[in-house]
Amino acid sequence: MQIKQYLKNIFRTSHWQHRLSVRRMVLEMTGLLVGLEAITVIILQIVSAQRKQHRQKGGFPHPSLDEVRVGDNSLHLYDYGRDLYDAMLAAIDAARESIYLETYIWKGDAVGQEFKEHLARKADQGVDVYVIFDRFGNTVVPHDFKTFPPNIHSLSYQAIRYPWQIFDLRRYALDHRKLLIVDGYTGFIGGYNLGSLYATTWRDTHMRIQGPAVADLAQSFTDFWNREFPVHTRIMRHYPRRFDPLINHRGTDALRLTFPIRDMYLQAIDQAEHYIRLTNAYFVPDRALFDALKAAARRGQGFVFLATTTCSMPKLVRLMDSGRPSERLISIDSVQSATMRSTPRSTAKHWLSKWKSCSHATPRMHLN
Fold first, then answer.
1. How far apart are CA 341 and CA 309, in angstroms?
2. Which domain holds residue 1?
3. What is the pLDDT, as a whole number, of residue 340?
4. How far, in Å, CA of 251 to CA of 274, rounded?
5. In a 3-state reduction of DSSP, which class is residue 209?
6. Are residues 99 and 243 in the same domain?
7. Which residues of the chain carry a pLDDT beneath 50?
8. Strands (DSSP E) along the chain, which ranges?
9. Could you give the count of Cα atoms lying within 13 Å of 86 in the half-sphere of its Cβ?
10. What is the distance between the alpha carbons of residues 72 and 160, in angstroms, rounded to a whole number?
11. Do 99 and 131 lie in a common domain?
């Protein structure tokens, strides 16, 4: 009996010690996450303050592009934030059924407040309004601004919800998409976030689509929303989709480890016959993309034009210095002249590949 009681005491002691160790580990991991978030907030505030000190006021030259027809859809490109915001707000004001807005950064400034007020008015009129913004991307945005009235459905997206998820590298992916879908018929997709900074001093590319192809964007937003919410709060509205040979939808999903956008870039580079023009603020290609660009140069296309910010210069230098001289894409002087500096800052993400026959070119919407 004494031995049995002794073993029970040992078991109870080890059981409580195990529970305490697990609890301590959870608390330490939670503390680590809170500490990292606090450090991130401080760093972002310092960077934001430095940018404000060096920010140049005023706009920059930009073309006014005409709308084009692609099958049953109308496409309009924007490369100036203020023009884009005016078009987005007009689409919001014209909404009758639903508004889906998703963005990485939503500044709590004049432009951000303008969007919030327009959305609130439509919600008061009975339009279903859903908004998604990335929690990390808006860390320094005041909490009050990120609070919406009850008739606006909002999601502050954060992939890491529990301490043990910090070991899952897929959870470090942010919601970097910028979408606006109105009534399943008018959609906006591109690189612009929402804020006064981006209205006049930020070079980027955005596109408005009007037509049946927007149903794909609506479904992408709905799928993302419904994955984050229980059944009773999910979006039940459905806009019918159909196959369109001229406009294809591509979306990256880090949690599912699917990256079709990367494959789309590689395919476009491999099939280009005359030139490639690529603008990107963060040019961080892997070996496959390096090899594809060098192979394009060897095919006799001659000039591969890369316009990027100074953030990507180390990668550009590596690209130019790799391989034999005949494989190098452009000289250092060409890169320097092609680099966009200071203001406007470029975060445009698009490519153009010139084909032998323009009828073979297919516009593709990509969600990153």
1. 6
2. 1-47
3. 36
4. 27
5. strand
6. yes
7. 7, 303, 323-362
8. 68-70, 73-78, 98-103, 128-134, 152-157, 179-182, 186-190, 202-203, 206-210, 248-251, 276-280, 304-308, 345-346, 350-353, 364-367
9. 8
10. 40
11. yes
